[in-house]
Amino acid sequence: MTTPPPECPAHSSGGAAPGGLTRLYGPEVDADPEGLYEKLRAEYGPVAPVLLLGEQPAWLVVGHNENLEVLRNPSRFSRDSRIWNQLKDGKVPMDWPLLPVVAWQPVCVFADGVEHDRLRGAVTNSLGRLNRRGIRQYITRFANQLVDEICQSGRADLVSQFAEQLPMLVMTQLLGMPEEEGPRLVKALRDMLMGTETAIASNEYVMRLCTQLAVRKRADPGGDLASLLGRDDAGLTDEEIAEHLRLVLVAANETTVNLIASGLKMVLTDPRFRAHLNGGQMTLPDALEQVLWDEPPMAAVLGRWATGDTVLAGQQIKAGDMLMLGLAAGNVDPRVRPDLNASLYGNRSHLAFSSGPHECPGQDIGRAIADTGIDTLLMRLPDLHLAVEEGELRSRAAFLSRHMVDLPVKFSPRKPMGEQLPTPRTPQAQPPAAEMPPAQPEPIAAAAPVGAPVPRQRRSRWSALTSWFRGR
Ligand code: HEM
Predict the structure, then answer these.
(1) What angle do CA 409, 414, 415 make, to 5 degrees?
(2) What is the DSSP letter of 73?
(3) How far apart are CA 126 and CA 222, in angstroms?
């Protein structure tokens, strides 16, 4: 099969995209990304030439094996976006909407080889030193607190009132951030990722907060991620710590929000899970694994860049070409899943957490937040059910991730647990030699507001949480 190179102007055709290539954006793609994978797979095989926003060319990898081939061969497919040929040729405008995702930054995501080992090693070591039992306690307690806020009304939107809140409540604790910053942080992170007019200001706010935290914890360490990064043998500078704190926040938030929302949708709608409650087969971890196969929270990763001319699944990839890893597309590759309805019990070979040297180092924490969070919710509200027809549930699909718009539910009103909630007994994090004191929440100088002011109601809810958390 011969395919025109993505940038070939000779293949421009009428109303079609330049080169007759498929545009990976627009309402049709958003409405049915899965349909597009199959169209591309049928037309080009496991690797398809596509056009991203602004008609930027890329190769979309839709094959499962080919995704693994790219991810596991960093010497052929680098993470360093500075080698992108379009960028070197000056063909990427500064206001290209995907530039924030692709532009090189001094973090492990954009590094290869020895430098990646150094930066990533610090992140994995530090995440590994966080106290697992302590993390689960935090998740349970914050999930209970969120349930307390909705349980008396008998109805709720589980996307905005649960899934979008829980990961950041937990992550701010793990990082060592003051709880008071949580609501603005959630808002700022969403703002950044949605590329709104205030995205740059939001990014600056998040970065300022992470820098303040890195400096403060260097001087007065605790058992949190910021302190552990500062103490790691990799010898990270304050700037590197701040950059990686920001990275962890960004990497953990949207992905875990999506896993919780899709997981909740599944347990509320899939008869196999409902049957489990009556002695059937599908447990909550099984349901989450099924979601990681069918609706991976990060549908695609942008990207990798070819270090030299190479051939991938018969396609001639030029040095500096950009590749986009189609994780969702690879997960439904008919060569690994000939029957999409067949049981996947115990099979974790999906691409949801990527693979190779950049494979997600926070997957256990992401899984724990979703699993423990949903479990707590179901324990508290066992008769939870959808308030709308399943067909009415809406997702804001984008090629990089799919985000549920809302998940309206009903349940029997109940009293909040409030004071009955036990106070925390273990510190959130512990270094290996237990030589560090437990992390203490500390105030950080108030940062500039992001976008609109935080609504009074959310601020007071957060204060209540903080007081509760501190046992006051
Ligand atoms: C269910 C939730 C999550 C999913 C589906 C997910 C998925 C991913 C994926 C697909 C990548 C890209 C790897 C690549 O470029 O090949 C990634 C990277 C990363 N994730 Fe996660 N993630 C999740 C949760 C988390 C959490 C909770 C944390 C932190 C506690 C985290 C930290 C990171 C970091 C630091 C990277 C960059 C690693 C590197 O480039 O070496 N993730 N994740």
Answers:
(1) 135
(2) -
(3) 12
**Residues of the chain with confidence (pLDDT) below 50:** 1-15, 425-429, 431-472
Residue 463 confidence (pLDDT) = 30
Q: Is 329 in the pocket of ligand 1 (CB under 6 A)?
A: no
247 alpha carbon to ligand 1 midpoint, in Å? 9
Residue 275: what pLDDT?
A: 67
CA separation for the pair 111, 118 (Å, rounded): 10
292 and 351 in contact (C-beta within 8 Å)?
Answer: no
Q: How far is the CA of 173 from the centre of ligand 1 (A)?
A: 18
Answer whether 361 contacts ligand 1 (Cβ < 6 A). yes
Residue entry with tokens 């206001």: 95
Name which CATH class applies to 9-420+442-469. mainly alpha
pLDDT tens for each residue of 37-74: 999 999 999 999 999 999 999 999 999 999 999 999 99
d(CA 244, CA 167): 17
**Residue written as tokens 């602004």?**
54
CA terminus-to-terminus distance, the chain: 68
Residue 437 near residue 335 (C-beta atoms within 8 A): no
At 280 the pLDDT is 61
Q: How far is the CA of 253 from the centre of ligand 1 (A)?
A: 10
pLDDT tens column, 246-260: 999 999 999 999 999
Q: Tell me what pLDDT residue 397 has.
A: 66
Distance set, CA 265 to CA 259, 261, 273 (Å): 10, 6, 11
Distance CA 268, CA 403 (A): 17
For 144-273, where are the E strands, in sequence order?
A: 155-157
Contacts of residue 277, defined as CB under 8 A and 6 or more positions apart, other chains included, come to: none
The Å distance, Cα 208 to ligand 1 centre, comes to 22
Percent of the chain that is helix, strand, coil (3-state, to 5) = 50, 10, 40
What pLDDT score was predicted for residue 277? 57
Partners of 386 in beta bridges: 409
CA distance 325 to 68: 9
Instruction: Please state the atom number of ligand 1 nearest to the C-alpha of residue 110.
Output: 40
Under 8 Å between Cβ of 394 and 190: no
Ligand 1: which of 224, 325, 360 to mutate, judged by most atoms within 8 Å of the beta carbon? 360
Instruction: Give how far Cα 361 sits from Cα of 106, 108, 125, 464, 465, Å.
Output: 18, 11, 10, 32, 29
Of 206, 175, 174, 176, nearest to 188 by C-alpha is 206
